[in-house]
Amino acid sequence: MIPLVDLKAQHAQIADEVQRGFSGVLENTSFILGKDVAAFEQAYSQFTGIAHTIGVANGTDALELALRAVGVGRGDEVILPANTFIATALAAERAGAKVVLVDCDPVHQLIDVAQVEKKITAKTKALMPVHLFGQCAPMEALMALAKAKGLEVVEDAAQSQGAKRNGTPAGGFGRIAGTSFYPGKNLGAYGDAGAVLTNDAALAKKVKALRNYGSEVKYHHPETGFNSRLDTLQAVVLSAKLKRLAGWNEQRRAAAARYEQLLSKVPGVGRPGTLEGNEHVWHLYVIRVPNRDEVLKKLNAAGVGAGIHYPVPVHLQGAFAHLGHKAGDFPVAEKAANEILSLPMFGEITAAQQEQVVDALKKALS
Ligand SMILES: Cc1ncc(COP(=O)(O)O)c(C=O)c1O
User: DSSP alpha helices (H): ranges in the chain?
Assistant: First the structure.
């Protein structure tokens, strides 16, 4: 069996360090926030180059808190792509805003900036690009548009830890961003975890209060907040993994290059492209194939843990039926949803495993 992502192989490399870190937390019993969370936040800021990292309970909360921090609320509209994990849209809706969807480009499946421009109204407050599968959205065009229209940009950097675009880190374009440390992410915790990223000290202060019951001084709550803090034990895991993240991302790039070479000889397979200027971190390696559901079944039966990210675009989810969309509204995203297939991708994947994946794929296609 070749899993989609091999978390056991990763854990083996950090097991001792995690054990020592957990023991330290148990000894000093500082289970909420404390020095381990602060140390991770500082280290993550050093890694990204984004001045402030505020650890929160998960990526969905990170995005909601980021939106609230820039003032998104009831009556506002937030524009985001139809082809994303549901959490991007949930965060906007939970912040009180109306979700406004746009389609993606057919090659990289990144947000289509031309469509964003058409959807801007007097109520639009923020744009939410998603750095999907490990590469940045076309941020120059999007930032220029946001600037011209006076809009906030809240980046969904959940799938792009370590990614850059023309030297700028994912999450460092807009005033604020959210990321997820869900276990399968490039930097994954051993449970739910996430963070808000910002270069703006005032916004950082605001998010720190929001994640902690709206409080800066214990038992004083000038505003409504949340209980959404990064768990201290998760911070221990994340700090241990963070030291190795650059190396793991490098290994992912090598694995992507190997897939590219192996798949170039397989007719009928659409290989993923990298938008010029992007330093991709290959959170997911997403190909396109005909008869995808059949192919997926055959791959799974052959022991290849392939998956689909994501089979149903946001506008066709029951949770967003109230937006009033129908099939055909976002044809590029819908076509992609029917053809995409994520192949096993993780730093430790071996050349032999990748050859096995591609052999199984050839058989499944024939
Ligand atoms: C693009 C995207 N946005 C948001 C999230 C939400 O993160 P979480 O699962 O930590 O809430 C995820 C990951 O699950 C994601 O992939």
Answer: 7-28, 34-48, 59-69, 86-94, 113-119, 139-149, 201-210, 232-263, 292-301, 331-339, 351-365
Q: Is the CB of 58 under 6 A from ligand 1?
A: yes
Is the C-beta atom of 346 inside 6 A of ligand 1? no
How far CA 56 is from CA of 24, 90, 202, 325, 336, in Å, comes to: 21, 16, 17, 32, 32
* C-alpha distances out from residue 258 to 66, 69, 81, 264, 272, Å: 37, 42, 30, 10, 13
Question: What is the C-alpha to C-alpha distance for residues 264 and 289, in angstroms, rounded to an integer?
Answer: 13
Angle at 90 between CA 147 and CA 308, to 5 degrees: 100
Each residue's pLDDT tens digit, 147-185: 999 999 999 999 999 999 999 999 999 999 999 999 999
pTM of the model: 0.98
The CA 179 to ligand 1 mean position distance, Å, reads 7
**C-beta of 84 in contact with ligand 1 (< 6 A):** yes
CA of 39 to the centre of ligand 1 (A): 23
The string over 179-202, giving b where at least 16 C-beta atoms fall within 10 Å of a residue's C-beta and e elsewhere, is bbbbbbbbbbbbebbbbbbbbbee
